[in-house]
Design brief:
The structure is a homodimer of 227-residue chains. By secondary structure, chain A is an alpha+beta fold. The first copy, chain A, contains 10 helices and 7 strands. The model of chain A has no long low-confidence stretch (mean pLDDT 92).
Chain lengths: 227, 227
DNA sequence: CGGCATCCATTTTGATACTG
DNA sequence: CAGTATCAAAATGGATGCCG
């Protein structure tokens, strides 16, 4: 069962040989926010069958991008984590997200699923390093029944699943509002004004956040409709 | 013929819906160095048949990423170019190349093809913005019978197919040597010393170039061989 | 040559049933 | 819940032929 490759001595092609197959980069995306169990992965990836998921995980393990571990107590179940090589795929996923934010996030469709973690990644893709010099903040996002946090430290941002220890800022909102904020379909300020979102903590940070995550101007990519 | 999508309202997934199919990002890679004709594309993409190539090009055209044009005289033949939306895929291709440089460029295999344009892209992926502040230079690369040039302007680099107007620096070498330089398997200095490469022009630039394109330390990704 | 349709063998995938 | 086994549908690759 020879694995299919492009047979090119090219860094781009070699990378695609490893992570270019269908679902693979989305699996990496899921693992960016921390360890996940088999079932968690499948739940967030509608259409990916158990067989293919198992095959992909095995492949990523063999390729040194994912490692299978046992979650710490009290969970104690098996889970998958990114290795160092996997972590370095962050720029790949973020650059895909950046392009998508600009060119492909026209209105959500009814047949599409949505997970708040994806929107957190979207925020991360919007993060403006330049505007963040000297700023230090820990934000917690409570979205429906899911919680994420972001740690802004000088010019970097780090996002993870779960609550923060000592958040400077807490945003509480619902799936739909957070989705729209992340996609620049509305602004945080606007959502707070209309009481679709609530914030606690450092009020001055609210203004700063708008500049740290500048809204993306979506561009029309298809001048004429395909007939 | 329903187009297959992930059905996720996620910037990463939406982008992969557009450019995630097999061959698609490699087609974009080919077009990054300028307009290409149907045959040129196929020549550089062994294994991609004419039918699939035509289908991919049509898809990219419909998606507003590629535009079909007529080359200026004297060529006058049809060719494909990236649109603005296509140009903005540069970070995607470069991030893939960056990861590959670090984790996947172990020695070339006999069954792999190689094109100097890919190595130029590799150099671009190695380019260190930080080290380039204030530097301005035009370099021409003559690799076998192909010519490329790079325009370094403050903190940016731009690479294109074809000769430069007034190069500050010209590197002449063969496919294999250029491949090895780009992949950090040797250095430009070393190649010049052993006469595998020749340089003309500003000699001080040679030293600077080494810092503009810091060698990538390839990391072993697979601790143990798959049994 | 550029571009595309057509036929066919092989892979990949999606979806579901099934097992520990 | 984690994963295997199975099978039908779709995508791919390779060859060929056609037409301007």
């Amino acid at each position: 069962m020879e694995q299919r490759t492009y047979h090119q001595y090219c860094a781009t092609a070699r990378t695609l040989d490893v992570v270019g197959e269908r679902w693979t980069l989305l699996l990496v995306r899921e693992l960016l926010t921390g360890p996940k169990r088999f079932g968690d992965l499948q739940r967030n990836l509608r259409g990916l069958g158990t067989g293919l998921l198992a095959a992909r995980l095995k492949h990523l393990e063999q390729q040194g991008i994912v490692r299978k571990t046992v979650l710490p107590p009290p969970a104690r179940t098996a889970a998958y984590v990114l290795t160092a090589a996997g972590d370095e795929l962050v720029p790949v996923v973020l650059s895909l997200a950046q392009w998508g934010m600009r060119w492909a996030m026209a209105d959500p469709r009814d047949d599409e699923t949505f997970e708040p973690g994806w929107a957190v990644l979207g925020l991360k893709a919007r993060f403006d390093r330049g505007a963040a010099t000297g700023i230090q903040a820990v934000c917690e996002f409570r979205i429906g029944d899911e919680v994420f946090h972001a740690r802004i430290h000088d010019c970097t941002i780090e996002t993870n699943y779960g609550p923060a220890q000592q958040p400077d800022f807490v945003l509480t909102t619902d799936y739909r509002t957070f989705r729209d904020i992340a996609a620049s379909r509305t602004t945080l300020t606007q959502a707070v004004a209309t009481q679709q979102a609530a914030i606690e903590g450092d009020g001055t940070l609210l203004r700063q956040l708008s500049s740290l995550f500048p809204p993306v101007e979506p561009q029309p990519r298809l001048p004429r409709l395909p007939r």
